[in-house]
Amino acid sequence: MSVIVYTKAGFCGQCKATETALDRAGIVYEPRLLEDQPESVIEDFKTRIGLTAPIVITDTEAGSWAGFRPDLISALAAA
């Protein structure tokens, strides 16, 4: 399973909640900063996923999403 979590620099409540939930579920993920991504990547996220941080990209049936989604984190843990 591949999971990448794009977060904002500084404090982001939804980002921190997502990382904490993934950690508690034992899901290994690669953290990346949104600010370090090229504009083309950001525009792709806006079009396909949404504007809310964090952006979580997976290669599982849970798919990819924006924001804190405990339901989808639970689906990842079950996969």
TrEMBL record:
The organism's place on the tree of life at top rank: Bacteria
Database matches in InterPro entries: Glutaredoxin, Thioredoxin-like_sf
Keyword annotations from UniProtKB, A to Z: Plasmid
CDD domains attached to this UniProt entry: NrdH
The protein's name in its UniProt record: Uncharacterized protein
Organism: Cnuibacter physcomitrellae
